[in-house]
Amino acid sequence: MHEFDLDPGLTLLRTESPRSTIVHRLACDRLADADGPAYWIDARNAAATHVLYDCVPRPRMLDDLRVARAFTAYQHHSLVRAVTRRARPDTDLLVAPNVAALYRDDDVAEWERDLLAASLETLSELGRVLECPVLVTSASDADAKRITDRATTTIDCVRTREGIRLESADGDRLTEGYWHGEYWQTTIPYWVDLCGAVDALDPVAAHDRGLLEVTA
Asked: Which InterPro entries does the UniProt record give (predicted)?
């Protein structure tokens, strides 16, 4: 069951935590139908292997996912540049969790802070040229503001009693259901998408067909 289809271009996913696993779910949803390679540029140790394997029905679905970890701003920028050399025309997905986090560490030199703009520009351009989704995340409002100008889509994670709901920046609900162990908790939008909406009931026609009882 897919969350939703990621569009080509840079998508900003605003998360509650740097270790949020929603990015794993969205990436694995995409990989389920992927034929080409995917690249994951990691920061803040977001790429938990066991979570990725828990999100796919078959381990082989992760065969084409390449994960590289960065621990400094310069390393992160270098990995972004490396992807430009390695990515193929059939690349299906680029993922960069906590994309801005390393650039604001206390020990980052002033010139390295400027590398964030270059990294975001590169990722945005890769999404455009390769026509593939580039999924980046941020758990910081300040970081998110720096990313928004480059993003073609912004998605907010909203915690509910059923789980995380995804909403677009204009408030549209994107989540159509929630996994709870072995069962899928559906929502009204899920059934509308599956079966279509029911037209408003005409009281006169309903009464004529005996579907509406009029009482005094």
From this structure: P-loop_NTPase
Beta sheet of 163-168, edge-to-edge order:
65-70, 38-43, 93-96, 133-138, 9-14, 153-160, 163-168
Closest of 30, 23, 22, 24 to residue 4, by C-alpha: 30
214 against 75, higher pLDDT = 75
Return d(Cα 140, Cα 16) in angstroms, integer.
8
Among 26, 5, 28, CA closest to 14: 26
The per-residue pLDDT of the chain, averaged, comes to 84
Q: Give the closest residue to 29 by CA, choosing from 148, 140, 210, 176.
A: 176
Give the amino acid at 76: H
Torsion region of 110: left, alpha or beta (phi above 0 gives left; psi -120 to 50 gives alpha): alpha
What share of the chain has pLDDT > 70, as a percent? 76
Q: Average of pLDDT values for 184-213? A: 55
Residue 171 DSSP SS3: coil
Q: Give the count of beta carbons closer than 10 Å to the beta carbon of residue 80.
A: 24
The four Cα atoms 191, 197, 203, 206 give a dihedral, to 10 degrees, of -70
N residues, the chain: 216
Q: Could you give the 3-state DSSP secondary structure of residue 8?
A: coil
The secondary structure element, H or E, covering residue 180 is strand 177-180
List, for residues 127-143, the tens digit of each pLDDT value.
999 999 999 999 999 99
